[in-house]
């Protein structure tokens, strides 16, 4: 989650029916360089059927063709004008439900797979951002408001897993993942301490409210907290590679640091506990036809936020803060970080996860809506 105040786009229509433009005409296996005619896309209850293949599931590289289904649409599962900033989707396989946060409203929501029913799952929720489940089925949440990582036990009690490091409070934990050995890895960029809108604003007005932004590991047995790296401006979304030998982290530091890159970094994991030297995995710069002049190209760079890996190691990254034709999900192949696919959404996408009974459905939290699309791959991990 990045700071929406520091990166607020121009005001958009408040209608529940969203319009978007299709700027890319992507031929199979190549990047289309011609801008298509603007085409309204209505996600409302009276929307016309989508003509397959869905024009907003875009193949940018031949390697994405195997994952893009030709006879499935992007679906908006839920929308409410009262929902302010949807984040932190996590799939519960036993309960067959999707959990997500609405940070400013201080609630967690739940979508039931059996009938699409949506309810308020938890309120208050500590202004939680990211959520996940461990291998015992317990929910873990990363709270902006309380500046802590918590676990909800099977009996309903709450265990505080982390709220301090080196004697100082955490900034505002953001997102996290669980290793099979029980360890919990999480990011602490501090956005929830930079504004009252998403948490409790720190009185010192610092970009680093309590300490340097960092990535941490909580030992699953001792609950001891270890700092893994602070060589990243504002670590945000985080995920493991399918074999747990690499960890990827999105950097959204450009929200507050002019020199920060807009990218996703990757580290080798050493002995399940330590990190090697980090490097850029993928840049969020995106070469595309200019909406203003289709005969020219531009290369805007937005932010990657939440990220997840599929079983082939591709990284599916929520993306936004550029606008129509960029915002949505960007898919990167694992070897060189080449962008191979793009799922365009009419809202800024904050986070993603794989779920459904076959783990082949990509759920996407995007501003005031929840979207989903079936893909021909599966999530690499339990959520």
Quickly describe the structure.
The protein is mostly beta strands and 383 residues long.
Question: What this model shows, in words?
Answer:
The protein has 383 residues and is mainly β. 0% of the residues lie in helices and 38% in strands. It is built from no helices and 30 strands. The chain has strands at residues 57-59, 75-79, 86-92, 97-102, 107-112, 118-122, 128-133, 139-143, 148-152, 158-162, 164-165, 168-169, 176-178, 184-188, 214-218, 225-229, 235-240, 246-251, 263-270, 274-275, 279-283, 288-289, 297-298, 303-309, 315-320, 328-332, 339-344, 351-355, 361-366, 369-374. A five-stranded antiparallel sheet has the order 1-27-26-25-24, with no helix packed on it. The chain is globular. The two termini are 18 Å apart.
How are the SSEs placed, and which strands pair?
Layout: E1 57-59, E2 75-79, E3 86-92, E4 97-102, E5 107-112, E6 118-122, E7 128-133, E8 139-143, E9 148-152, E10 158-162, E11 164-165, E12 168-169, E13 176-178, E14 184-188, E15 214-218, E16 225-229, E17 235-240, E18 246-251, E19 263-270, E20 274-275, E21 279-283, E22 288-289, E23 297-298, E24 303-309, E25 315-320, E26 328-332, E27 339-344, E28 351-355, E29 361-366, E30 369-374
Antiparallel strand pairs: 1-27, 2-30, 3-4, 4-5, 5-6, 7-8, 8-9, 9-10, 11-12, 13-14, 14-15, 15-16, 17-18, 18-19, 19-20, 19-21, 22-23, 24-25, 25-26, 26-27, 28-29, 29-30
